Protein 1
Amino acid sequence: MDRQWHLTNGLLSLVLGVHDDGSLGLLHLGAPLAQGRSYRHLVPRGWRGFANRLGDPIALEVPTSGSGDFRVAALVVGQPDGSTVLELKYREHGIAVGKPDLGALPSTYVEDDAEAETLEVDLADERSGLVVTVAWTIFGERPALARSLRVRNDGNTALRLDTVMSLSLDLPDDDWTLLHLAGVWGRERHVVERVLAPGRQSISSNRGSSSAVHNPFVALRRATTTEAQGEVLGAALVYSGNHLAEVEVEPYGTARLRMGIDPETFSWALEPRASFQAPEAVLVWTDGGLGAMSHAFHDLFGRRLARGVWRDRPRPILVNNWEGTYFDFDEERLVAIATVARDLGIELFVLDDGWFGKRDADNSSLGDWFVDRRKLPNGIDGLSRRITELGLRFGIWIEPEMVSERSELFAAHPDWAFQVPGRPRTESRQQLVLDLARPEVVDHLFGVLSELFASGPISYVKWDMNRWTTEPWSGALPPERQGEAFHRHILGVYELYRRLTEAFPKILFESCASGGGRFDPGMLAFAPQAWASDDTDAIERLAIQWGSSLAYPVSSHGAHVSAVPNHQTGRITPLATRAAVAFFGAFGYELDTTALSDADREAVRDQVAFYKGHRELFQFGRLVRLRSPFEGDGNGTAWMVVSEDRRRAIVALYQVLNRPNPQVDRLPLRGLDAGAEYRITTWPRVDDAVTGANTVTRGGDDLMANGLLFDVERHESAALGDFWARLFVLDAIDR
Ligand code: DGJ
């Protein structure tokens, strides 16, 4: 047997082979290739990048350090003699239908074994007893692969894992542009691109969670790749903790992409007979451009990573009281907000921060998950029953992973917070991070939160997390295992999520972290939607939602209409524009409904009715990005959603600043049925220079070739003002 494996589904091919020295390497990843052939010729021999080991292969699946491959390593293991040199050689392999799960870690899954095939190859280092299992899953009918790594200590002495990357790909050329999603609070997941250059280029988080700073997603695209065509390789880590994604371009023009838990903040003691499972990396390869890549991620993450009854269910339209009241509310005020919301057609009322302990500001009570009877004399039970009697569902906010110094929980268990004994604690938002590496903390939280969730008709939970982790020292771990604290904490978070979602399968969970600070695939496995950003300004949201959509499905973006002037930017945008942006997400409102004018109430009623009429198309249709806020002067953004049968679509065009005497503009559409005729209507129902020319019936071929037409005369443009948005609803008609 020539020890070569070819995973293909007609959409892509992955070919792995065992090299002459016994190591495992990548021969091909990309376009689908014919089966039954050898692809060994693709790996150059005698490669000059290695020291003294001419003949060593260029492409390694699990590169290690210290033996001549000077590129970044995927696996660094400290051994009893202090060295990190390993000789990983093929030992055995297995191929099976289906996809095994990863135990404590979230991962993509199949509903039927026929949906995927998994190859596992064991590599062993005889001297240390280390066995590495490389697992590759190929999904049928999806241009996607999942890759994970498991290491096991079959030796007699403890080993120390310093670096365990989930993915390491040796790509034969460096002719790529690296795309990633960077930001901070209030401007999460902005698209950043850089052409690969010699050396290392990386993104990472050492903040204890995936973070708003760098999302655990990267893509490599060719210079000529666009939204609609061209080669792209996307990689995402199914993990919510510290991560690293790095590309190294070495002097001979190859590129190594590695992705996994951030090695700077990680080490793990691997005792004899113990094993360690690294998180899963998901890869998408396509030559259909960034749009096809995103579609593959949306489909896989939306349908085979997200779980539970809400996965495929239309999400309710909610009103959240946070920006409406902040901490200043009582039962009557909340019921008043909910009553108006009900009259406007809203379906779910969400009570945000401030209902528990004695929390009138963000300086106390986290951890005390019992109701504040000063504000809610009838408890959560009383309030939630009043809300449900109105005909709304009821949802509640929690922040389980945190504790305030001013809290009963901290007074009882000061050692449950992360801190280094004898050193000052770094406070952030006047709160501390609970150490979920301690099983008793997870047990405690499960106990109090299950009591809360059972205390009334709660059908939605917003799970927040509002600070980064510092002093990551766990009282549950001995000194030599402190490098495990971050990862064990995340495993504790996952354990708590798993227990609560299993105990309350009907609750819709939305994750949150000071806005979109933990908007990652790991969270998606438990909470099918995530609050995308505390920045609810419609214009800022264009960039945030565009960037998020590179990897995450529209149904996962929590998106709300808020009051103006916007609380984050001070900007005043039209109510219709705020809705036209938030429609492209899990839609809701975040304002005091009682403060809306009569005209605004009428407008909201219309928005809610419009969204309900098209909700499944918005949430689960195929997203096609048309005009990027990150290109040119960023003044225009456009995207659309198309139904699976291509008979319905909604196109959105947004303009930031109005320009005098505008140019003639065309917006070619994509993804329609070329042979269909579409009747076009607009929302809001205005007849003006933007909409007028487009409320006609046109062919899909014409709309894709020539696009919507915008020919605004100079005397007409002033009426549009700044920050306008128009939606175009396309319905195929039978001829
Ligand atoms: C941060 C979240 O992103 C907000 O939506 C809100 O829930 C606050 N925390 C409450 O403290």
Protein 2
Amino acid sequence: MTPKPRLATIWLAGCSGCHMSFLDLDERLIELAALADLVYSPIIDVKEFPENVDVTLVEGAVTNADNVEMLKKARVRSKMLVAFGDCAVTGNVTALRNPLGDPKAVLERAYTDPADLHRKIPCELPVVPPLLPRATPIHQVVQVDFFLPGCPPSADLIFYAVTELVAGRTPDLAGKYHFG
Ligand code: SF4
């Protein structure tokens, strides 16, 4: 029996909305499971990104050192890497922090109680992976094979694109997608 294609999804700096839309496949998740094995994802309990993945969907932009490490690992271990949603494709919401410049300002705004603004905080907090100077779309870090726009992409679009990709075909998105 021919093994099924191996599908993975990862979540970098995003809001999880693209994965929520993936879950909106509802009963079509069962159809998808008949076509491909989901070998790694935030929605299954696998700790290490595996070798020999056929298609990997990447949600989110690249905004910290952990994102870079995970994305590069997924790239090396995947035949087809897909920018999944607008944050991965363009930076989108995640990149809204870029005009603030120095990541230290972002950390201060997010993690310092306004009542304590007079206190100095370290630029790198032990609980937060070091932020990169800018949040970037994933194609600025690794080669991307396919772009699936949308914030989030609709469940219908995800189902169409993923079933085509795991079948080894290139989805034709003309007239099927929009940004935002
Ligand atoms: Fe969330 Fe939209 Fe970014 Fe997807 S593209 S992670 S839904 S903000």
Protein 3
Amino acid sequence: MLTINTTKLVTIERHISEEQSIYPSATGEFTAMLRDLTLALKIIARDVRRAGLNDILGMTTNTNVHGETVKRLDLISNDIIFRAMDHGGHLCVMASEENEELIAIPDPYTKGKYILVFDPLDGSSNIDVNVTIGTIFAIYQRLDPTLKTDGTMQDVLQPGYKQIAAGYTCYGSSTTLVYTSGHGVDVFTFDPSIGEFFLTFEKVKIPYKGKYYSVNEGNFHKMSRSIKAYIEYLKLPSSDGVRPYSSRYVGSAVADFHRTLRYGGIFMYPSSFDAPNGKLRLLYEANPFSFIMEQAGGMAIDEQGARILDKIPTSIHQRTSFFVGSPGDIEELVSFKELYS
Ligand code: AHG
Ligand code: MN
Ligand code: MN
């Protein structure tokens, strides 16, 4: 039984078409594109649920017991999104974490005005151990929406503030889809018996401050002085009981981000001396998460304190240090950076 925290019974499709209807010029194209993407997400959710049964776990060797080549679940998810999105006539190009180059829309399909960038399966180290993983996506409009040609690298390398929609799924105890098109953040939960995502939380807002910090502390000694000092501070008991913060780290960014969004606190993937730009990808992870977080009243910055959404990408697989969460926690982090700079 779904717990629905809204008064209306609304599917994701209905929600998107209602949001679009506020624009007199809307043609229904955006809604149709999101319908294709939602279908892909449902198929991936189904395949994730069947992963152990279907012999498609992430870390299997390349051949199964039948001597057939086995694809990793992240590559299967990548194919599903491509096959759902290449022929709709809405996209002019795609970029995926799993493809070295841009993904062209094959001929003879129509080239549309939208661009899709995605991380087909986030949390690869958790695929085999039944821990939450997810899919992350962002949608942009091409620079000249009247063109009917292939999208270019310049079309894809737009700063995050140009996103027109972003979202992610968590394939966890239930499958949730978190979505924004710049009108707040809504959470949908998949009901497998009906095959629909239902709106379950409307216009979620992150608490001003949280009780959780989330970081791979195994990298502690590789971090900068100010980040180490901030983490030590979060662990230090305070007389008002606000600290120590509790530590939570799943190692799937979708899961760590989702908890941060709902409960507040801070998620960090800092730079380290051997990875000056951290690990996470600007296009497929940091930008969509930052758009969603800002829409929920939170903040997202890099280690230099720059707003993630203002960063101009120079390559599609660019990495960035990433700090995201409650505004009160991000402000506190910034004060540590200032103190130690
Ligand atoms: P992906 O599985 O898409 O490659 O992303 C993995 C990322 C992200 O999900 C997570 O936050 C991070 O890797 C964990 O990295 P560490 O193991 O270094 O903590
Ligand atoms: Mn990822
Ligand atoms: Mn991935």
